UniProtKB/TrEMBL annotation:
<dbReference type="InterPro" id="IPR017853">
    <property type="entry name" value="GH"/>
</dbReference>
<dbReference type="Pfam" id="PF00232">
    <property type="entry name" value="Glyco_hydro_1"/>
</dbReference>
<dbReference type="GO" id="GO:0008422">
    <property type="term" value="F:beta-glucosidase activity"/>
</dbReference>
<dbReference type="InterPro" id="IPR001360">
    <property type="entry name" value="Glyco_hydro_1"/>
</dbReference>
<keyword id="KW-0378">Hydrolase</keyword>
<protein>
    <submittedName>
        <fullName>6-phospho-beta-glucosidase</fullName>
    </submittedName>
</protein>
<dbReference type="GO" id="GO:0005829">
    <property type="term" value="C:cytosol"/>
</dbReference>
<keyword id="KW-0326">Glycosidase</keyword>
<comment type="similarity">
    <text>Belongs to the glycosyl hydrolase 1 family.</text>
</comment>
<dbReference type="GO" id="GO:0016052">
    <property type="term" value="P:carbohydrate catabolic process"/>
</dbReference>
Length: 478
């Protein structure tokens, strides 16, 4: 049994499920500009992760000939009632979803709140409450309004801090009576790795790309702190979390140079973010990194004060796989925003993500030891090219195996004494893949009849993993 009040649920994001990209006032987002590109080599999607001005122009000039998967999502906008019921019927008690900024303040800087957008999210929460699903709300999940890019050049512009906090404040106030757990930014470390979707930065437009990315990140840290401040004023019991793409990595071997290199990589890609948001200051190793790499961040003392005074209440992260580092940098494995080395002891998914359930236990122990803050697994799951059989079943035994192993290690971590209060599987229902834009990279426990080009009935079918999870929750949730 999991501890009493343990949260177990499923998570989705607005751009990957909603669709209805131009309905009821919503303006265009960066996610809406990603058109479908057929990936020949599933294990190398580097090209898909970087967005150039050429690609954006091409997308806008050829709108009618291209297919934009995130404009369609899985039509959750119209089917949320059916989907939430299916999710609740599995026996889950939590649902993580994100709010789309461009549905709430479509014009960004005129302060006009779109009531239809507010109503849509209130309706989602109403359904959650009907089925006793605790809503966990992400305020920004890879769908920056495109107007922020056009007018302000993305998050590197300090003006975006106040625009974002104005939006966050509307959301916090409107939903204050129904939501306790908030995540201002999804995978905030993605700002360095997928600069366009996370921060609205177009790589070829920057003279010093790394500096622009870290500036954007700094501005997001300030916005995060301001959002926490606003939230606590509304309700001091609100629980505010950070969220990272957790890239747990091992040193290739015990060669001290490799161990040191791995530590430095982990600091830069992972610990830095937790250190800053949990401890409230820039760690010295990062200040050194900035100097060594000619990165000058514009900030003033008041921003650092804000960060110091408004720290997170909990730590959350997505965990899919682990990786390996060595000085050789033989980066052959692609994994959730990172390129890493292969681990000879692990199997990998079709997309090259190295499956490591014990790594989850290691991660939970490590983060608990370092920060002593409650932990929350915001995403965990596996992308598989599931097939709908003739008899309308989906035999996703590999997913069952993946989930079973990870949940076992989660329990082991709890037995180790780690304070973890929730687990969200990515995803309860098939969604458009974030990085590769495919439908065929399916994470769901519920199958959606829709292909990479948007064809299909969109009908929902329960996979074998759905029934498995239902039974698992019956036996493990108090
Ligand atoms: C995380 C995102 C999710 C998600 C997941 C799987 O990066 O927070 O939005 O989709 O990873 O990634 P992908 O869909 O690229 O396989």
């Amino acid at each position: 049994m999991f501890p009493k009040n343990f949260l177990i649920g499923g998570g989705v994001s607005a751009p990957q499920v909603e669709g209805a990209y131009n309905i009821n006032g919503k303006s265009l987002t960066v996610a809406d500009l990603k058109y479908f590109e057929d990936v020949k080599n599933r294990k190398d999607i580097t090209n898909l992760k970087t967005t150039s001005s050429k690609k954006i122009d091409y997308a806008l000039q050829n709108e009618s000939d291209l297919y934009f998967p995130k404009r369609e999502g899985i039509d959750f906008y119209h089917r949320y009632k059916e989907d939430i019921k299916l999710i609740a019927d599995m026996g889950m008690n939590a649902f993580r979803f994100s709010i789309s900024w461009s549905r709430i303040i479509p014009n960004i800087d005129d302060g006009k709140v779109c009531q239809k957008g507010i109503k849509f999210y209130k309706n989602i929460i109403k359904e959650c409450k009907k089925f006793n699903l605790e809503p966990i709300v992400t305020i920004s999940h890879f769908d920056l309004p495109y107007k922020i890019v056009q007018k302000y050049g993305g998050w590197k512009n300090k003006k975006v801090i106040s625009l974002f906090t104005e939006y966050a404040s509307v959301v916090l106030n409107e939903l204050k009576d129904f939501v306790k757990y908030w995540i201002p930014f999804n995978e905030i470390n993605a700002t360095i790795f997928t600069t366009f979707v996370s921060a609205g930065i177009i790589a070829d437009k920057e003279d010093n790309l790394l500096e622009s990315c870290y500036q954007a990140l700094h501005n997001q840290f300030v916005a995060n702190a301001k959002t926490i401040k606003i939230a606590k004023k509304i309700n001091k019991d609100f629980q505010m979390g950070c969220m990272l793409a957790q890239a747990t990595c091992y040193s290739l071997d015990c060669k001290p140079e490799n161990v040191l290199y791995n530590l430095k990589e982990q600091e830069k890609k992972v610990y830095f973010y937790y250190d800053l948001m949990a401890k409230g200051e820039y760690p010295t190793y990062m200040l050194k990194y900035f100097i060594d790499n000619n990165i000058n961040i514009a900030f003033d003392e008041s921003e650092l004060e804000l960060i110091k005074e408004n720290k997170i209440d909990f730590i959350s992260f997505s965990y899919y796989m682990s990786g390996v580092n060595s000085l050789n940098k033989n980066l052959t494995s692609e994994a959730n925003l990172f390129k890493l080395e292969k681990n000879p002891y692990l199997n990998e998914s079709e997309w090259g993500w190295q499956i490591d359930s014990i790594g989850l236990r290691i991660t939970l122990n490590d983060l608990w030891d370092r920060y002593k803050l409650p932990l929350f697994i915001a995403e965990n799951g596996i992308g598989i090219n599931d097939k709908l059989e003739k008899d309308l079943t989906i035999k996703d035994d590999r997913r069952i195996n993946y989930l079973e192993l990870h949940l076992k290690e989660l329990k082991n971590a709890i037995n180790d004494g780690v304070n973890v209060f929730g687990y969200i599987t990515w995803t309860p229902i098939d969604v458009v893949s974030s990085a590769s834009n495919e439908m065929s990279k399916r994470y769901g426990l519920i199958y959606v009849d829709q292909d990479d080009n948007g064809n299909g009935s969109k009908k929902r079918y329960k996979k074998n993993s759905y029934y498995w999870f239902q039974k698992y929750l019956k036996n493990h949730l108090q």
